[in-house]
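Action item from last week, closing it out:
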Amino acid sequence: MCAQKIADVAVLDSSPIQALHRGAVLSHLGTLFERPMLCRSVADETTWSHRKCGPKLVPDLKAHPELAVCAVSNDVLRATMVTLFRVYDHRNFGRRASKNPPEVVEYQGKFYAWVGKKILTHSIPDLEVVVLAKQLSGVVIADDGRLIRAAADLQVATMTTREVIASLVSAGAIADASAVLAKIEATGYVPTSR
């Protein structure tokens, strides 16, 4: 009997990819999601990290053909920054929120949006993860608080590494969450708890 899939698409950030690899459960993502995916910048970062840190800490993406890689247009990222700035501005400034559209600039791996002295920044990989999940009605798997907040602002569902591991236990794909978490934490990475 097959377990119910959580979502059709899951888009992973780089930290959960590495954590799930360290816990030896990365290949089980297909149990929970029809299409586990990476955005291009996360795939590039993972490939670079694999070369620098080796296979014990970072997976070789060639060994995981189930992880599809997809690119996101810079125009879409810019439009997303405008939306995120509006949410940020309204949440933090309420009625004093700016009525002018923000200026959006890409610089050194980040997008900056600002009006006057109000500024919002997001790294390109974080934006790509959220945008890809939003476009495909998927779930973001992340341990980064800023990325989780951006996903919430865009009404995209999120899961942390710990929640993925708990779901794998519930689905019967792995037997013991504490053993997996112990393997991950032995490498120096502590997954986020909500």
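Closing note: The chain has a mean pLDDT of 94.
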